[in-house]
Specification:
It is a single chain. The protein is 42% helix and 19% strand. With 570 residues, the protein is α/β, with parallel strands linked by helices. The protein has 3 domains: 295 residues, Alpha-Beta Barrel (TIM Barrel), CATH 3.20.20.70; 105 residues, Helix Hairpins, CATH 1.10.287; 110 residues, Alpha-isopropylmalate synthase LeuA, regulatory domain (Double Stranded RNA Binding Domain, 2-Layer Sandwich). α5 links the parallel β3 and β4. The termini are far apart.
Length: 570
């Protein structure tokens, strides 16, 4: 590997820090978290969010307690512009939430951005950016340092002029690729902007210092932030912000050290979505504080629902090993780990009983579990089931190795409970054929009474997905044609007949192997009785998926009573 083609960042940007204070400091409170999922994160999605997903994501962040949210790049797309207008014309943003919009330093784009925020009653931050690093100046922008500074100041003057008479608007400036910009030049430009915008303690300017492309160890970024923190003019009138990316996989460390070095505000994405390896993960940062006894100021008490919403809006799955939120983070497969966790739970409960206190009020010190799963909405039974599953012969392994059935982790937990109940009732070892039979009886019943797929046609017409579907429901045929895929089409047709199935996740695989394999689709769904699983299989992947939805509908309809012709509307 030609490593000699690259240079240490210290050779490119020497930080003039003489005495470092950040190594001796400790985190004692949460910074201001600013999620940028709707802008920076959205730009990094293979399928950018439509208005409905943007609104759902925004409402999630409001419910979690974020007080400043970057909502879009209004001059970049009509969708972003329209979403900002929705905020202006509706009440979806509580009064105490500050709205942030993003713009380059170009007059026409600034004007478009200002047009988008007209009428917003909330506090608004216009976030203007320009790349300042030498490579960007030379290769991308074609401006020497002095000319680029004047371009930035011209953009700043345009912001002032175009927002004249808008007292609820404050300003933010990002010298993009700050971490590769000469420290003296970054300081010069930032001081010029706070002077131009007349930063005061009553109306502070946000200076956001991005590690746009992470290229150095986190201590170097901390030195850069501390240098700015100690040398900025009007420091009491500046909110010092950071925006780390994760190219080296150390974005979390960069953000934590930056806060030690003087940063007061952190921009990032919930669960770290973003270009390349992502923006910094502000959920992990917040829960790291929680694990140290510091209030993160954000509500993660139902982390699985947060994950479902983020996955739905991003159309990207969260990795099962993702810190705190992944399906496997509270799971131990090693026997020694399982034993330690069980002993930890026993000791924890015994201390609570001895001290006559609630378990949630006792200091947490269960081995291998940095935080109590209950803090983020997970229960102890889920941990115990997974461990019992692993010790009872590898249920998931047998299904995968014998029949090629790969179960999502949450379905493994649900199925393990059923297998355990069967094992307890019979007292017998469960062989692979019995395991498959249990799986089919639980999730793949073949009874078509009441609900039956008659015909399915799906494809793309004029660039748009189209599904024609015909079902027999309660003895009568119902059909529909929808501009969506088969799964959503089936859910819509069922909903028209008052059978509502809310699909939370969908996973596709196969049964058996080779030429005789069948497609297997499993779905996680919610109805009036809770969250459940259903499956469907067929030689066709699309048909298997629709059959899974029908299986879920049977369970839903069963909770409402028989699906009969009298219940089925005309």
């Amino acid at each position: 590997m030609p490593s000699d083609r690259y240079r240490d960042v210290n050779a490119r940007v020497e930080v003039p820090v003489i005495e470092r204070d950040w190594p001796a400091r400790r985190l004692t409170q949460a910074p201001l978290w600013v999620p940028v999922d709707l802008r920076d994160g959205n730009q990094a999605l293979p399928e950018p969010m439509d208005p409905a997903r943007k609104r759902r994501f925004f409402e999630l962040m409001v419910a979690m307690g974020y007080k400043e949210i970057e909502v879009g790049y209004p001059s970049a797309s009509q969708t972003d512009f329209d979403f900002v207008r929705l905020i202006a014309q509706s009440d979806i943003a509580p009064d105490d939430v500050t709205i942030v919009v993003f713009t380059p330093a170009r007059r026409d784009l600034i004007a478009r951005t200002v047009d988008s925020i007209r009428g917003i009653a909330n506090q608004v931050v216009i976030h203007m950016y320009t790349a300042t690093a030498p490579t960007w100046r030379d290769v991308v922008l074609g401006h020497p340092a002095d000319a680029l500074k004047e371009l930035i100041l011209r953009g700043g003057r345009d912001v002032l002029e175009l927002t004249d008479g808008m007292p609820n608007v404050r300003f933010e400036f990002s010298p993009e690729v700050f971490n590769l910009t000469e420290p003296d030049y970054a300081l010069e430009v930032c001081d010029a902007m706070t002077t131009l915008w007349d930063a005061t303690p009553e109306r502070p300017v946000i200076l956001n210092l991005p590690a746009t492309v992470e290229v150095a160890t986190p201590n170097v970024y901390a030195d850069q932030i501390e240098h700015m923190h100690k040398n900025l003019a009007r420091r009491d009138s500046v909110i010092l912000s950071v925006h780390p990316h994760n190219d080296r996989g150390t974005g979390i460390a960069c953000a934590e050290l930056a806060v030690l070095a003087g940063a007061q505000r952190v921009e990032g994405c919930i669960f770290g979505n973003g270009e390349r390896t992502g923006n910094v993960d502000i959920a992990t940062l917040a829960l790291n504080l929680h694990a140290q006894g510091i209030d993160p100021m954000i509500d993660f008490s139902d982390i699985d629902e947060i994950r479902r919403t983020v996955e739905h809006c991003n159309r990207l799955e969260v990795h099962p090993r993702h810190p705190y939120v992944g399906d496997l983070v509270h799971t131990a497969f090693s026997g020694t780990h399982q034993d330690a966790i069980k002993k930890g739970f026993t000791e924890h409960r015994a201390r609570a009983a001895t001290e006559n206190r609630r378990e949630q009020d006792i200091e947490w010190r269960v081995p291998y579990l940095p935080i109590d799963p209950a803090d983020i909405g997970r229960d102890y039974d889920a941990v115990v089931r997974v461990n019992s599953q692993s010790g009872k012969g590898g249920i998931a392994y047998l299904l995968a190795s014998e029949y090629g059935i790969e179960l999502p982790r949450r379905l493994q937990i649900d199925f393990a409970r059923r297998v355990q109940e069967h094992a307890d009732a019979t007292g017998l070892e469960i062989e692979p054929p019995q395991l498959l039979q249990l799986f089919e009886s639980a999730y793949l019943t073949h009874d078509t009474s009441g609900l039956e797929l008659i015909d399915l046609e799906s494809g793309t017409r004029d660039g748009t997905s189209r599904t024609d579907l015909r079902l027999r429901i309660g003895g009568r045929e119902h059909s529909g044609s929808y501009d969506v895929g088969p799964v959503e089409a089936a859910a819509r047709l069922l909903a028209e007949q008052r059978i509502v199935v809310e699909i939370l996740s969908l996973h596709q695989g196969s049964v058996a192997s080779g030429n005789d394999s069948e497609a297997l689709t499993v779905i996680e769904f919610r109805n009036g009785t809770g969250v459940h699983w259903a499956a469907g299989r067929d030689r066709s992947v699309l048909t298997a998926s629709v059959r899974a939805v029908l299986q879920a509908a049977r369970a839903t309809a069963a909770s409402l009573g028989p699906v009969t012709e009298s219940r089925s509307p005309s």
